[in-house]
């Protein structure tokens, strides 16, 4: 996984200093060290960082919540990677968490700490298309150009999505190609061959100044029982007092005369 991120980062044309968001026990950092990169890793879990210290990893370790910003000097990093971490910013795990504010803080601080022309590659697993769109949207608002690259798009097990971002580019940046089913490289736009499991297809390539047009919502299909249950669960995560779910929840009432 780290080698693939390194490949997408294209370190051959950038400097050696890398930021890892969600570094965990430092296993991925060891691969970066072997390839001659200096790195700084942050993680929200103290126990995972303790494991990294016990393993004597060579990177600098920070106990930090990336949803509150990265807290580094502007332009100090030559690149950034993350493995299966940024999707958690889309969730409200605590009543104090507001996903939009956390995404804004993360991508804003990431943009500031990267050198101009540097690249960030964030591997993620999105629950749905909406989460992917949230990640791309806040990255573009922070000033990045880029988009989503998908490896093995038709595999339910091997499929992986990468948010590939370039810092300080005002025009649309060209994206690397994703890996195909037989090891060949395939464009991230060639993934719609009718595979029903491929729900969250690539979002595409975007420039930092792209228009933010909202799609019209079909209220008839979007406000049923499932929508109501999701809204109630969101309110519970925010600490609100919400009535318990019953067999009558979301049931359409008959019109009384």
TrEMBL record:
GO terms for molecular function: rRNA (guanine) methyltransferase activity. Residues 210-222 have a biased composition (Basic residues). Its main location: cytoplasm. Residues 187-199 have a biased composition (Acidic residues). Residues 223-232 have a biased composition (Basic and acidic residues). Residues 165-255 form the 18S rRNA (guanine(1575)-N(7))-methyltransferase Bud23 C-terminal domain. Residues 176-257 are annotated as: Disordered. InterPro entries: Bud23-like, Bud23_C, Methyltransf_11, SAM-dependent_MTases_sf. It is found in: Cytoplasm; Nucleus. Residues 21-120 form the Methyltransferase type domain. Keywords: Cytoplasm, Methyltransferase, Nucleus, S-adenosyl-L-methionine, Transferase. The keyword Cytoplasm applies. One of its GO terms (cellular component) is cytoplasm. One of its GO terms (biological process) is rRNA (guanine-N7)-methylation. PANTHER family: 18S RRNA (GUANINE-N(7))-METHYLTRANSFERASE-RELATED (PTHR12734:SF0), METHYLTRANSFERASE-RELATED (PTHR12734). Belongs to the class I-like SAM-binding methyltransferase superfamily. BUD23/WBSCR22 family. This is 18S rRNA (guanine(1575)-N(7))-methyltransferase Bud23 C-terminal domain-containing protein. It comes from Triticum turgidum subsp. durum. The lineage of its organism: Eukaryota, Viridiplantae, Streptophyta, Embryophyta, Tracheophyta.
């Amino acid at each position: 996984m780290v080698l693939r991120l390194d490949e997408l980062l294209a370190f051959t044309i950038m400097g050696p200093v890398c930021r890892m968001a969600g570094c965990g026990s430092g296993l991925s950092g060891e691969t970066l060290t072997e390839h001659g990169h200096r790195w700084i890793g942050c993680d929200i879990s103290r126990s995972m960082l303790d494991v990294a210290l016990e393993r004597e990893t060579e990177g600098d370790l920070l106990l930090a919540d990336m949803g509150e910003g990265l807290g580094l000097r502007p332009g100090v990093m030559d690149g950034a990677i993350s493995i299966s971490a940024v999707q958690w910013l889309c969730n409200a795990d605590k009543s104090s968490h507001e996903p939009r504010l956390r995404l804004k803080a993360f991508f804003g601080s990431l943009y500031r700490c990267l050198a101009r022309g540097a690249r960030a590659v964030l591997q993620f697993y999105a629950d749905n298309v909406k989460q992917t769109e949230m990640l791309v949207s806040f990255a573009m608002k922070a000033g990045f150009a880029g988009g989503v690259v998908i490896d093995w798009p038709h595999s339910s097990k091997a499929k992986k999505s990468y948010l590939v971002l370039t810092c300080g580019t005002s025009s649309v940046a060209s994206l690397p190609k994703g890996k195909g089913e037989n090891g060949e490289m395939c464009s991230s736009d060639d993934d719609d061959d009718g595979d029903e499991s491929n729900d969250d297809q690539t979002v595409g390539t975007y420039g930092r100044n792209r228009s933010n047009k909202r799609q019209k919502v079909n209220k008839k299909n979007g406000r049923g029982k499932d929508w109501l249950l999701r809204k109630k669960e969101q309110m519970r995560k925010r600490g609100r007092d919400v009535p318990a779910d019953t067999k009558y929840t979301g049931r359409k009432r008959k019109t009384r005369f």
